[in-house]
TrEMBL record, chains A, B:
Top EC category: transferase
Keywords on record: Aminotransferase, DNA-binding, Pyridoxal phosphate, Transcription, Transcription regulation, Transferase
Residue ranges occupied by any HTH gntR-type domain in the UniProt entry: 1-69
Keyword GTP-binding: no
Protein known as: Transcriptional regulator, GntR family with aminotransferase domain
SMART domains registered for this protein in UniProt: HTH_GNTR (SM00345)
One Pfam family of this chain: GntR
GO molecular function, one term: DNA binding
Family stated for the protein in its record: In the C-terminal section; belongs to the class-I pyridoxal-phosphate-dependent aminotransferase family.
Highest taxon listed in the record's lineage: Bacteria
């Protein structure tokens, strides 16, 4: 047994015996080295192993802490290839998007919010009450001032002081991400991303002829800053693209100090951050978590968001707070699709102004948190024991990691026959990793049918499960 | 005097004396060379000069004809620089788009259709009658099948047999053009375009990091195939981007045989054509002119269009018939803005299906033709005598060429003070040419206020007019 393994065992024991409690600060590397008479690098190696086991977590500038242990079966830290790669998987994404499911199928593959919520009624009523003539002409290419004003009000909750002139309305978050990527890069550039990452943003990276550098990501705290810094030292990375709040597909929220640290890192390497905050408003924390944008003092953060997850994707109302890239972003937004339709913008602006939006997301947060727990319970009941699952602190999606011998693409085909859909893992990697993972949606309220779907899913997985020897 | 000038004078005399009438075929080059004892190239040079004077026009494979002389004061043939250039003018375009006009201003700068037409009422009524819930979720990324089916029906009138699977719905024609450019090019490629050209498409060329090669363009018959062929011989041109039917900003429609000839040229150089047909349905010809796409047998034509000019730009309903580039176009459309809103698509599909659209464009064609003639008459009355003006055979915009000493950018500032707006010429060139030109809109029905606006415009122009010596 090596020195570091020995040390790791002793530390693990201390944690498991309760000597150090969840959230406690652990001794510093220097202190432990002195205490045990070993080298600094031996202690670091021991902590690295415990970090991999999710027992401890590193906090930048603060040292190591015992993990909060929300859950004891989180997916493992991702270990993507440490070099920039072209994004593949378009065929797989297209196949999933084009699936015509059986009408009775339980579709757990899409990241669609609950759109039957009664709190949406004022908005829907208003949409049909508008005079359709107001929506016929061209409008401001940055979007209506009414909506931009309301967005500034909302931004305060995430720690941002914005002016309506700092915003550009887009056709959903997908256009926002796509426009931002094109505004800050040239073809051939490298973008650092979390791994796993949302397939829509990765396909935008592909379409802009960029390379993706997947960075190891912790299922509880997000992108590894150590690995990111290593990558920044080694490669000419142009921008970092992250979804740090209620991440898609995993659901974690990066701690606030880590967000600030990420911003400082971007500053010291003089690179840009594209921050996707699409799920930010449906975080289960109150007040909602701050964005990286809230730390931005020099305009290097481009914040992208939309109402696709908090209201409905069919609204196609998204936005960018482009910081110092405002002119370039305005140009690319204009050539990309000219201006956005006016009526949905006005309806959403009114919904926010009259308080309907705040009421709606308050209700949704409550529902989604309850539904998350119901789904976790069902997974525990029906899935094999070695299943790992993420513990989202917001959103309505979670990430499942199965036994490494199970192929989620094959599993998907089988499950479709049973009328249950999910989003297979390889879609969330630039290079088709995470074959034993998938993403599930829990936005719909619990029902017998949904319970049956999770049970069926478990049964199919069990037929794929390798037999214990 | 050179031999060719001599010959040109004699031919001009014959035409002016009525020896050859408008539309008549002129003697072949070979015949004239023999008759006058000069070389083939001398005759060609003489014809080229008369063509420049718009007295004669060349028809591919048929020879030279006396121009139809719809009008005797057409703008001159454009003579852009014969090399690929980067597109500039974004500041100027942005300035125009961001202008907050006085509320009482007569805005002749935008290419907006008449949206007060009673024939639009069934569509507007239907928009508010829809159940808003149908528009909340994600839909087919290619757009609704209902709309794609109706578009195939419409395409028959332009000579195309399409299948719903051959179409991708976009957020207006701007997204269609932008997606097509990105689907068929790599950064640094050269795109051949008409000169002048629509600023929105040129800015899309700029944003895709492409170079524009402006080709001399005849104000009555469109892009010069001779000049285009020369350019294709000299430069590695990747695609041709044209608006051959009811061109923006000029209004000409390329004759059908010339469209076919252009397609053959693209075939022989194995390059792609992006065809913008946004004004095609409001051609004054009946049946409407064929598209270049109608000659396409090998899928090299990407047809782009939308209902922004035939219905209203605020609908944001456009489409692409991408030919052999379908997969690439679907990918880029998806990353560009995900799917398009469902409700406008369904409303437009129903409007077409029930005959409302056919009725509406029949009415619009009649109105616009009448309004064109009223505007031409007003220009003749109020503008300086040396003003040249295009003769659109469709659309609701025309192109004015003033004395070469007048700067339309300065003129625009002055006219804005008077409460009259227009689109200045430099916006329609990659490199800020056409300073003495501008585009006017005639989509609104004639009124005292509009008559006053044209009169005011004429008065301001007259203060800019150089004094005759």
């Amino acid at each position: 047994m090596t020195l570091y393994e020995n040390l790791a065992i002793r530390l693990r024991e201390h944690i498991e015996l309760g000597f150090y409690k969840p959230g406690d600060k652990l001794p510093s590397v220097r202190q432990l080295a002195k205490e045990h008479g070993v080298s600094i690098s031996t202690v670091q190696e021991a902590y690295r192993q415990l970090e991999q086991e999710l027992l401890v977590e590193a906090r930048p500038k603060s040292g190591y802490f015992v993990s909060a242990q929300k859950q004891d079966n989180l997916p493992s830290i991702s270990r993507p290839p440490q070099r920039p790669l072209e994004v593949s998987q378009w065929e797989e994404v297209l196949n999933m998007l084009m699936i015509r499911s059986r009408t009775d199928a339980v579709q757990l593959q899409h990241a669609m919010p609950d759109m039957k919520a009664p709190t949406l009624k004022p908005l829907l009523k208003d949409l049909t009450k508008q005079d359709p003539e107001i929506g016929l002409g061209y409008s401001d290419i940055r979007g209506t001032e009414e909506l931009r004003t309301q967005l500034c009000r909302l931004a305060v909750a995430s720690g941002c002081q914005l002016h309506p002139d700092d915003l550009v309305i887009t056709s959903g978050c997908q256009e926002a991400l796509s426009v931002c990527l094109r505004a800050v890069t040239e073809p051939g550039d490298i973008i650092a991303i979390e791994s796993p990452s949302f397939y829509g943003s990765m396909q935008a990276i592909k379409a802009a002829n960029l390379k993706a550098m997947e960075i190891p990501t912790h299922p509880g705290t997000g992108i590894s800053l150590e690995a990111l810094e290593l990558a920044l030292d080694q490669w000419p990375i142009k921008a970092i693209f992250v979804t740090p709040t209620c991440n898609n597909p995993i659901g974690y929220t990066m701690p606030e100090d880590k967000k600030e640290q990420l911003y400082r890192l971007a500053q010291s390497y003089d690179i840009t951050i594209i921050e996707d905050d699409i799920y930010g408003d449906i975080s289960f924390q109150f007040p909602r978590p701050k964005t990286i944008k809230s730390f931005d003092t020099d305009g290097r953060v481009l914040l992208c968001s939309s109402f696709s997850k908090s209201i409905a994707p069919g609204m196609r109302v998204g936005w960018i707070a482009p910081g110092r890239y405002r002119d370039k972003v305005t140009h690319i937004k204009y050539v990309s699709s000219s201006m956005c339709p006016v009526m949905p913008q006005l309806a959403v602006a009114k919904f926010i102004r009259l308080g309907g939006y705040a009421k709606h997301i308050r209700q949704m947060r409550q529902n989604y948190e309850k539904q998350r727990d119901q789904l976790l319970k069902a997974i525990k009941t029906y899935f094999p024991k070695d299943t790992r699952v993420s513990f989202p602190d917001g959103s309505f999606i979670l990430w499942v990691e199965l036994n490494q011998h199970i192929d989620s693409m094959k599993l998907m085909k089988k499950c479709r026959e049973h009328g249950v859909g999910f989003a297979p893992g390889p879609l969330f990697s630039a290079t088709g990793k995470y074959r034993n993972c998938f993403r599930l949606n829990y936005s719909e309220q619990s029902s017998e049918k949904r319970e049956w779907a999770i049970k069926s899913l478990g049964e199919v997985i069990n037929t794929f499960q390798p037999q214990e020897s």
